């Protein structure tokens, strides 16, 4: 046994004189493919070493594979610096792709493979585009970290989506979910529908943030600090929930033991409840529903923005495009004719 001039690397010769190299640290040993003269060897070594230096553990994934690239990204500072909600979103997409590509050598994942991956999600173009963005980010990291030679996702165009973007829930689906949903999914549904907030902000809402008929929200995405008035239907649902739990402590959306949900943990129970009720509509569509209700009630874009916290009035108006045109048109004509 000998040692090459790299920290934590052991060289082992078998009975046939074949050399193998391992990264040994903290009681863990992982094979490094190739030899010290190979680029593949040094790329794998850097990924494993970076994982330990970042305080993580060596992935069981084989160096040089897509799975190992994902593990190296998770251990890197680029991933550590992301917001918690962004990390959760990235993991959701990358872990799904890793189940399919995990053992593939990254060198064999070409532009055609990435386009085929995108096109498998073509029936959900918004999801396909989001997943493509994450894969592009992963390979860009890989190029910078010298784990891959090129980014096969670079330059691949997003799929066309409808101008409406996120679709609001149909009235009959809203009614069914409001009438039949249970547990944390029900609570989150009511909070999202009646406050117009994003999922992460809904999960962060606390009982002690409610005062004077309003709930305080600091949006994770924008940093906007809002005080959103509670509508009667939401007040009734919260009163029922507090009576059921016997108190108003912690986060409003919580597990049976009173602890808060992670985004991934909530996603599991949300999908399960949607499947049970046959109401498979995006959570973010509730934000669009809330925006449209405000417009239909005659609110100005500025008033809607004060509730939803959208960063720009342009985005507010984009979300309100599907508001009931006939109702708004009648209201406009009443103003023209001097009616009420």
Characterization of the model:
By secondary structure, this protein is mainly alpha-helical. It folds into two domains: 9-144, no CATH class; 171-334, Intergrase catalytic core (hpI Integrase, Chain A, Orthogonal Bundle), CATH 1.10.443.10. 51% of the residues lie in helices and 9% in strands. The strands form two sheets. A three-stranded antiparallel sheet has the order 1-2-3, with helices on one face. The chain is elongated and about 95 Å long. The mean pLDDT is 85.
Q: Any key phrases for this structure?
A:
single chain; 340 residues; mainly alpha; hpI Integrase, Chain A; 3-stranded antiparallel sheet; elongated; DNA-binding; DNA recombination; Integrase_catalytic
Separation, N- and C-terminal Cα atoms: 91 Å
Question: What's the domain count?
Answer: 2
| SSE series | EEEHHHHHHHHHEEEHHHHHH
Shape estimate? elongated
Low-confidence stretches: none
Organism: Phaeospirillum tilakii
Protein name: Tyrosine recombinase XerC
Keywords: DNA integration, DNA recombination, DNA-binding
Family: Belongs to the 'phage' integrase family.
Describe the structure concisely for a colleague:
The chain has 340 residues and is mostly helical. The protein is 51% helix and 9% strand.
List the SSEs and their pairings:
Elements (H helix, E strand, L loop, with lengths): L8 E5 L5 E7 L2 E5 L6 H15 L12 H10 L1 H4 L3 H18 L9 H9 L5 H20 L26 H10 L2 H13 L3 H6 L5 E2 L2 E5 L6 E5 L2 H14 L17 H15 L7 H12 L4 H8 L4 H7 L5 H12 L4
Helix pairs in contact: 1-2, 5-6, 8-10, 8-12, 12-13
Keywords: DNA integration, DNA recombination, DNA-binding
Family: Belongs to the 'phage' integrase family.
InterPro entries: CB (IPR044068), DNA_brk_join_enz (IPR011010), Integrase-like_cat_sf (IPR013762), Integrase_catalytic (IPR002104), Integrase_recombinase_N (IPR010998), Tyrosine_recombinase_XerCD (IPR050090)
């Amino acid at each position: 046994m000998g040692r090459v001039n790299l920290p934590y690397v052991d060289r082992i010769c078998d009975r046939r004189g074949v050399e193998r190299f391992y990264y040994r640290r903290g009681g863990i040993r992982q094979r490094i493919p190739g030899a010290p003269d190979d680029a593949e060897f040094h790329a794998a070594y850097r990924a494993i070493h970076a994982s330990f230096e970042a305080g993580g553990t060596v992935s069981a994934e084989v160096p040089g594979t897509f799975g190992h690239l994902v593990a190296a990204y998770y251990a890197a500072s680029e991933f550590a610096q992301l917001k918690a909600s962004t990390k959760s979103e990235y993991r959701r997409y990358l872990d799904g792709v890793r189940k399919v590509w995990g053992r593939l050598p990254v060198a064999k994942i070409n532009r055609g493979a990435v386009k085929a991956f995108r096109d498998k999600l073509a029936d959900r173009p918004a999801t396909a585009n989001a997943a493509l963005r994450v894969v592009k980010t992963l390979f860009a990291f890989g190029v910078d970290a010298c784990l891959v030679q090129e980014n096969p996702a670079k330059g691949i165009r997003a799929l066309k989506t409808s101008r409406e973007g996120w679709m609001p829930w149909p009235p009959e689906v809203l009614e069914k979910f409001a009438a039949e949903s249970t547990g944390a999914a029900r609570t989150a549904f009511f909070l999202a529908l009646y406050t117009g907030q994003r999922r992460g902000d809904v999960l962060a809402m606390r009982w002690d943030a409610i005062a004077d008929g309003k709930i305080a929200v600091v949006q994770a995405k924008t940093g906007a600090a809002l005080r959103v008035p509670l509508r009667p239907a939401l007040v009734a649902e919260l009163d029922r929930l507090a009576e059921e739990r016997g108190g108003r402590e912690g986060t409003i959306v919580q597990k049976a033991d009173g602890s808060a949900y992670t985004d991934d943990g909530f996603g599991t129970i949300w999908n399960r409840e949607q499947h049970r009720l046959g109401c498979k509509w995006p959570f973010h569509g509730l934000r669009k529903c809330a925006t449209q209700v405000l417009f239909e009630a005659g609110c100005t874009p500025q008033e809607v923005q004060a509730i939803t916290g959208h960063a720009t009035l342009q985005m507010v108006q984009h979300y309100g495009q599907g508001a009931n045109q006939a109702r708004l048109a009648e209201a406009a004509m009443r103003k023209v004719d001097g009616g009420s």
